[in-house]
């Protein structure tokens, strides 16, 4: 029995497999409590209840930060300095968590549009978001594993990430707002062409059986608009992952810190949606703070991995001082918190902020 479990001690991207499995089991427990106990019946999730759920998930995320600081054993391979590894890890974890939470906030706009497009009743929206998050956990694991393999093999890829983040931040400021036209989405077009789809939502079901439209007399499987909404939520998460995964790897190269900060931010997304869906327009200036964070993180990569590390490798002396992780955390807090506060103050008294 002992030998059969020896694989648990093997490492995967710097951490033992048992730690990865324990984390996934813990997340599974939280999801079971959420859907199986707290929200086990269809119904409208109130803003007050959502605020309590979001506060609970945030508290758990903070508690996990304490684990990172006091218990976690960082792999020095993923850190530029061998000193104070746990301090570096916890600062990077909270920076990543705040950044991913802010990026997830952007999803609220698009998710609301998807629910409106498919006319998803509020009492079924929680179910769609729950399964959407389940998919996001899987997809983020795939993206982060690929990202870790690429970054560790080719460190220069970080400079591509830096350029992409600077470009994305610049585009968010000056590129204007472009709404997604779901009718033209290729994934939705494909599904409508290949699947039987009901005209209306059938309770909380993603699939139902109905008579074959070809007249065979058999019952065949039909997807409902609720399933299409779920697929589009997953598509949106994949699109946003293109921004968020490079952003978090720009903060830390430690795959465990990358994944855990991502997942805790995603867990809070569902509660955040129901808590802020009605007031989301009040945060219209958030994108400017977030865009500046992306630009600064891109610049930080060039600074630390180019000017600092590159010059040090050639001469033995650094051209510029090393930017410690706490400066990323302070900048992220200041820019995101400041843009949210400014938005709330600026739109105060507006009935329908643009």
From TrEMBL:
Belongs to the TerC family. The keyword Disulfide bond does not apply. Pfam families: TerC. It is found in: Membrane. NCBIfam families: R_switched_Alx (TIGR03718). This is Tellurite resistance protein TerC. It comes from Brevundimonas variabilis. InterPro entries: Integral_membrane_TerC, Integral_membrane_TerC_rswitch. It is a multi-pass membrane protein. The keyword Nucleotide-binding does not apply. It comes from the Bacteria. Its main location: membrane. The chain crosses the membrane at residues 17-39, 51-72, 102-121, 128-150, 156-174, 219-241, 256-276, 288-307, 327-345. GO terms for cellular component: membrane. Keywords: Membrane, Transmembrane, Transmembrane helix.
